[in-house]
Structure formats: C-alpha cells, structure tokens
Amino acid sequence: FILIIYKHGVKICKVLIYVYIYIYIYIFRHIPKYFARPTFCLLVSSGSFDGLKDLESLDLKRNRLTILPSYIFSQTRRLTQVDLSNNRLRTLSGVFLDLSALEEVFLNDNLLLQLTNDWFYNTPKLHAINLENNVIFEIQENALQPLKRLSRLIQGKSASQNFIEQYDFKL
User: Fold this and answer.
1) pTM to 2 decimals?
2) For residues 39 and 11, what is the distance between their CA atoms, to the nearest angstrom?
3) What's the per-residue H, E or C state across 37-106?
4) Is the separation of the CB atoms in 46 and 75 below 8 Å?
5) What are phi and psi of 154, to 5 degrees?
6) For the purposes of burial, counting CB atoms within 10 Å of the CB of 126, is it exposed (0-12), middle (13-18) or buried (19 or more)?
7) Strand pairing partners for 5?
8) How far apart are CA 107 and CA 88, in angstroms?
9) Burial 94-113 (b: 16+ CB within 10 A, else e)
10) Per-residue pLDDT tens for 99-129?
11) Other C-beta atoms within 10 Å of 81: how many?
C-alpha cells in the first residue's frame, strides 16, 4: 500500500504501508491541513483518523472499500471534503454524523443501496453530494431534510441510474 500526502493539492511525499492504514495515519496526526490519499486500501479501521483534528480534505477514492465504521471521522472536526468515490461501499450509516464543517461529499460509483436518515445528521454546512452511479433504491423520508444548505445533489443523468423513480428533494 502507498499513502500519498498532499498539501494544497500538491503531492509532497509517499509512504509505503504494509499494515493497517491507521498505524501510518497516527504518524501524521500533527500535520495540519493536509490531504491524505491512500492509493489502495481494503480496510479502514475504527480510530484510523483519531488525532487528525486539523485534517480538512480526505481522498479515499478507488480503494475497494466495502464498509466504514460509524463515527470514523468523529475526531476530524475541520473536515470539509470527503471523496469516497469508486469504492464498493453499500452503506454509510453513522459515518458523517456531527461533522459541522463538512461541505462536500463524493459518493459516486459505489454500491450504495439506500440513503438513511442518519447519514448526514448535524452536518449544517453540507452543500454538495454526488450520488451518481450507485444502486440506490430507497431514500428515507427525512434523509436530506436537515441539509438546509444543500444546493447540489448529483444523482446521475437520470434518476433511474440509482433506481429512484421519483423523489422530491426539495432543494
């Protein structure tokens, strides 16, 4: 595995990873405002991002992730952008809870089945979500209601890409 660290979009170093990713993220826990992007990772364990209080942007795309533990980002209070696109995620229950700085989430090209009420609870600044190319068949009634600033919801060229025939998003 390789961990690439970015600062303001510029790659600054690579670190080889042989064990779970959280061991190496622990090493970088005091690096503020960096963009950590593993290029191949099958498992992100609970506590992987603990201590990364200043992390603002996280790119975990194309890692074949199938599950993320609830509260995985609970210690990253400054996190504004998360890219989980091109993985194999089926659910994200409790993953984004109480992330008051979160603004953008990229969830496109996964295997997400439903959008539940607890996905984005207490994320008041969230204004953009990309759900394109998933297999979403259900959106719970109040799943998007708390998102007062949501102005961009990308669900694909047609709602049928996600098997959603009709849904009034009330944006």
Assistant:
1) 0.73
2) 13
3) EECCCCCCCCCCCCCCCCCCEEECCCCCCCCCCCCCCCCCCCCCEEECCCCCCCCCCCCCCCCCCCCEEE
4) no
5) -95, 120
6) buried
7) 13, 36
8) 10
9) bbbbebeebbbbbbbbbebb
10) 999 999 999 999 999 999 999 999 999 999 9
11) 16
Distance CA 12, CA 23 (A): 19
Tokens 């995620």 belong to 89
111 vs 100: CA distance, rounded Å: 26
d(CA 5, CA 146): 33
* Whole-number Cα distances in Å, 15 to 5, 24, 35, 108: 8, 8, 14, 27
- For 39-89, the pLDDT digits (tens) are 556 677 788 888 888 889 998 888 888 999 999 999 998 999 999 999 999
Q: Do 84 and 90 form a contact (C-beta atoms < 8 A)?
A: no
Distance CA 102, CA 127 (A): 9
Amino acid at 154: I
Task: Determine which helix (DSSP H) or strand (DSSP E) holds 26, and give its type and residue range.
Answer: helix 21-27
The answer to whether 66 and 91 are in contact (CB under 8 A) is no
d(CA 121, CA 144): 9
